[in-house]
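HUMAN: Quick job: go over this next protein and say how the chain folds.
***
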Amino acid sequence: MACPHPARQAPGDTLPELLARVSRGDARAFSALHMLTRGRLRRTALAARAPPHEIEDILQDAYLKIWRNACRFDAERAPAMAWMSTIVRNTAIDHLRIRRLSTDEFGSWRRRPRRSCCDPGRLLISRPSSGRRDRFAKWPQAS
């Protein structure tokens, strides 16, 4: 009987082996890994609320991270798909953070009026801790 096509196998069956080969620089293993996981990792990026027009950039960055860090994968700590999904989710979150800090938002933040350091509205009056009281007690008194 012929061996089933790799793209039709259950992803959990071959992913740790493929990641081990990727960690040794095997481009064919990386291609097979990509073929097996691209749909699920795309859904992971979408679940992280990444805009659909940024998905390809996010996945490209994530697969680059997977390629570079495949040697760090430990099958005893987590399943391969969970490890890769975490990389994709974190990459999507990073893209969202960068997008949130656009120049327009940064510009509006800079236009806010700034209070001076001597503004009474900024002063917070609180009781000093006992440690501070002890330190202040050691200071020489003004004449």
Q: What stands out?
A: Confidence is low (pLDDT under 50) at residues 1-13, 122-126. The CA atoms of residues 136 and 142 lie 12 Å apart.
